[in-house]
Every structure is written in C-alpha cells, then in structure tokens.
Amino acid sequence: MTNAEYRNHTHYIAEGWSEEPKESFKELLGIVRAEAPSASSILDVGCATGELLGFLSSQLPSTKCSGVDVTDDLLIAARRNLPAAEFVNASALDLPERFTETFDLTCAIGCMSIFDETQIAAFWSNLFRVTRPGGLIVVLSPLNEFGIDAMIRHRKRPGGRAAQWETGWNVFSKETIDEIVEANGSSLQLKRFQIAIDLKPKDDPIRTWTIKTESRDRQLTNGLKLLVDHYFMIARKA
Ligand SMILES: C[S@@+](CC[C@H](N)C(=O)[O-])C[C@H]1O[C@@H](n2cnc3c(N)ncnc32)[C@H](O)[C@@H]1O
Asked: What's the pTM value of the predicted model, to 2 decimals?
C-alpha cells in the first residue's frame, strides 16, 4: 500500500492565527480550569504555529508552554508568534526523552487521526510518558461510536491530476482508545465536542464545515464525505 503522510498544514501559515479563539480551544480551556486548575507546564503535541499555546498562555498566565510538531515551517512561525514558549521539532510517536514526566498538562488537538493502527498505541504511550504523575492528558479527535476502526487515506486531484496520498482522517472506535488508555494504567473520560457556530466550506474541501441534519443543527462534515464527531478524550496519569 502506498505510504500516506499528513500534508494539509500550509493554511496554518498562510492564514495566521484566527482573530477569535477556536471553539475547540475555548472548550479545552473549560476542561483545564475544571480538571487541572493549577497546571503550570503545558505541552501541545501537533502545535502547528502555536495558536493553542498562545490562547492558553493568555488565559493561564505564568504557565510554561512547550510545543512539538514535525514541520519546520510551522515551528518557525510558532517561535515568531510566541517567543516565550519552547518549540521543538519532534514526532508525537517519539517525544524527546528529556520531556519524560515533565508536563502538568499534555494536549493533542486534531492530531490523533493522523496515526494508523500501527502507530496509535505509541501515540498514547508517548503522551503518558511525558505527563507527570497526576497530570492531565487531553486529546481532541473524531471517534466512532459503532465499534469500528476506520483507517482512511485520501488524495486530492488538483487541476485534475492525482496528488499524493494523505492521512489525517483515521477514525478509531471509542473501545480501541479505551483499551489503549487502560493499558497505560488510566481510564478514559469522553466529552463530545459540539461546535457552537456555523462553518462554511472553504476552498480546500478537506477542511470541515457544518451542515444541518434531521438530528443536529451543526453536523461537521468534509469533502471526504465523512460525518465527523469530535470528542475530547481526557485521562489522568496515575
Ligand atoms: C490538523 S493539524 C492541528 C493543528 C493544531 N493542533 C490545531 O488544533 O490547530 C495537525 C498537526 O499535527 C502535525 N503533525 C503531523 N504529524 C505529526 C507527528 N508525527 N507528530 C507531531 N505532530 C504532527 C501537523 O504538522 C499539524 O500541525
């Protein structure tokens, strides 16, 4: 099977940070205030240009912020945007040894669905390793509620030509993530993320937008023709 990589990151640089914090960031802040109010060190895995850390540090002053991503162009923009934070080029599947048991709060927003069935256990064990005992892990990603793990590769056809295969929309079942979190000595708490604003389709059909359905005013979907239901996955390191 052809290898599929995550490639859809250029809009983070082209568009810069949003004027209004993203809805998911605001909801994450609520979780942090409730579950980890005294967190003083935060790691954001898959941090792109540092937008989440920028938001969290504005709301939780005197927190020490670190971010990792695998794309240098994103990290260069992140360092410019938020000079007080540390940004490191590292994969979620191989976080630096020096991060072991360091962070009060470890987040990964919109990044878990990049990884497939051969990588997902390593993704979670890295998050657990870098979080200090008693610390909190919060992951936001689509989940499947029907007991199905769906590994999805897609490619675009710009100008009618087939581009390379991409990853980014794998959808794991709640049960699979539950098992992995339990294997790391913790238990999974789920909180459904219900977006509170309408999103319009963008030029890039991979990016999500909202549609009205019989059961929901705002169902997220995208050009892969997926119905996307995001969940916050919350786990405390033992
Ligand atoms: C959908 S974006 C989410 C960005 C940001 N967390 C947000 O919510 O706006 C996924 C991010 O994961 C990064 N990424 C891709 N592969 C990764 C890996 N192996 N380890 C860490 N980050 C990765 C991408 O470069 C991209 O910045």
From this structure: 0.97
How many C-beta atoms surround the C-beta of residue 12 within 10 A?
A: 20
Domain chopping of the chain, boundaries:
10-236
- Average pLDDT score over the chain: 97
Q: Which two tokens stand for residue 99?
A: 């991060």
What single letter denotes the amino acid at residue 23?
E
The residues, ordered by sequence, that sit 6+ positions from 25 with a Cβ below 8 Å of its Cβ are: 51, 52, 55, 56, 109
User: Does the pLDDT value for residue 1 go beyond 90?
Assistant: no
pLDDT tens per residue across span 36-57:
999 999 999 999 999 999 999 9
- Give, as one character, the DSSP assignment of residue 21: P
Closest Cα to atom 14 of ligand 1: 46
Cα-based distances in Å from 71 to 9, 10, 115, 132: 9, 10, 16, 26
If one residue of 43, 53, 70, 91 were mutated to test the ligand 1 pocket, choosing by the most ligand atoms within 8 A of its CB, it would be 70
Using the atom order of ligand 1, give the atom closest to the CA of residue 71: 25
| Fold classification of 10-236 (topology level) | Rossmann fold (3.40.50)
Alpha carbons 46 and 90: distance in angstroms, whole number: 9
Distance 95 CA to ligand 1 centre (A): 14
Residue of 45, 109, 114 with the most ligand 1 atoms within 8 Å of its CB, for mutation? 114
Rg (CA), the chain: 17
Instruction: Report helix, strand or coil for 74.
Output: helix
Pocket of ligand 1 (CB under 6 A): 6, 9, 45-48, 51-52, 68-71, 74, 91-93, 109-111, 114
